[in-house]
Amino acid sequence: MYQPSPIARRVAAATVTLVLAAGAAACGPEDSKGGDSGSGAEGTPQKGGTLTVLNRNPQRDFDPARLYTSGGGNVPSLVFRTLTTRNREDGAEGAKVVPDLATDLGMPNEDATVWTYTLKEGLKYEDGTAITSADIKYGIERSFAPELSGGAPYLRDWLIGGADYQGPYKEKKGLDSIEVPDDRTIVFRLNKPEGEFPFLATQTQTTPVPKAKDTGTKYEEHPVSSGPYRVVSNENDGERLILERNPHWSAATDEERKAYPDRIDVRSGLDATVINQRLSASQGPDAAAVTTDTNLGPAELAKVGSDKKLAARVGTGHFGYTNYIAFNPEVKPFDDPKVRQAIAYAVDRTSVINAAGGSSLAEPATTFLPERDFFGHTPYDHFPAGKTGNAEKAKELLKEAGHEKGLTVTLTHSNAKDFQSSPEIATAIQAALKKAGITVKLQGLEDNDYSDTTHDAKRTPGFFLSRWGADWPSGGPFLAPIFDGRQIVRDGSNYNAAFLNDPEVNKEIDEINKLTDLKAAAARWGALDSKIGEKALTVPLFHPVYKRLYGESVKNVVISDWTGVLDVSQVAVK
């Protein structure tokens, strides 16, 4: 997400959006994945009760076409089922893609340019009507409509004819590259090999939408549920969502969602301090409450550390996210690799980690890819700075670059108090570089201006703080948007700040994308990360860690490495 990769790109994050609901269901949450032991709060989870979600950010644009998610999202996955989804397990197991509406992960042709999916039998909407492959085709096509923009761009980029298609409201014919030979089969024809299409099929754009029930921009007010919960109330564009059970959802067709609570009440627009205070006190309904977007801060963690009962209610998560220094080599003196290398050597990661909230909230990074096998993480440290920086090596490189007396540069950062690209991080870097003879002037921008400036090719600073999150658990959506020269956007939102357009890098990205063996692909993503790292186009700083409280009545806490946050589809409150 992003900056977050538009999930993290637009998920910002690392915070994957959520939605939940409740009500009476004909089919209960039968466990088809091996028991009720859970991985969080003790006690056997039971069906019933109301789960409350306390968040800062509202669940806006609650339309599957407009959401930028992967894995089906968090709250969205309670209402919207997709062709595939994330495996609802703890840690690395949760970073695997598994079937959802489809019977498998899809059948590719020999070069992965054609993917065929077969739907499970017995799938139904909240009104009891059957879900068909034509509904999935229509749901995808409406995501191309300009008035329903906001979702991930991949289908537009990958589907033949997608780049020029304007959606079914303007073009009744639809996309020829999506075929539905019968009610349970859907075929996608791509303009290039994409071995990771099963990951893309987790995004909410593959949610079925019945054409007869489509109300355009008003669909978000009452989208037709294909999941275990349905929307009964959506106030102020997602500020408060009430979800109740979908009586026609069947656990027999859904191995992933537990759907324990009867009702889910999502309340947003709350202050972070208030959220953590309410979860800590755990009084009344707050005993059965969680948050999906609010971290504990350093001061709150200190309090938690002295209270064993409170500490037992903290969920720890890791999301594929890297905070880093970005360089624009089109701006002097950052056109000189030796200057970029000098800065990489001078960085004091210990002070950066402290500025980010301490080692409980941030892990030091020397690689762009996070330290998870599914990303293809390959350890490297091309410019070893140690824990506190190598000022002498930095001075040596500056001398070779003709800056024996040092130099002065400007570091652009956000003024947002987010412990990521904020003033605290910038100040830590400023102090470290001073030891190497580099005077750093700080340019703080308000959050929107910061995002607009750093992503505008005409205004991209030479030296700024940035961050990137994976659209799904793979090295591809991590490396390609930042380093693929064909993704440079000169007029629009650009994420390749280094303007790298290396034919060898571009070719290797294409070759990896052909692979349907994800383990083999991961190894090559890691090798490519190391190769790009030698160019010193970024300085990885840290990977964030999420620490989030939950109420004392919450059970079955599952936190996967796909999202890094508590999975609301697994939670029980009784």
From TrEMBL:
User: Could you tell me where the Polar residues compositional bias lies?
Assistant: 47-57
Domain Solute-binding protein family, chain residue ranges per copy = 96-486
| Compositionally biased residues, Basic and acidic residues | 211-223
Q: Which Gene3D superfamilies match?
A: Dipeptide-binding Protein, Domain 3, Periplasmic binding protein-like II
| Keywords, in A-Z order | Signal
The superkingdom of the source organism is Bacteria
Q: Where is the stretch described as Disordered?
A: 27-61, 207-232
Q: Where is the signal peptide?
A: 1-21
Which PANTHER family does this UniProt record tie to the protein? Answer: ABC TRANSPORTER SUBSTRATE-BINDING PROTEIN, PERIPLASMIC BINDING COMPONENT OF ABC TRANSPORTER
The protein in question is named ABC transporter substrate-binding protein
Species annotation: Streptomyces cavourensis
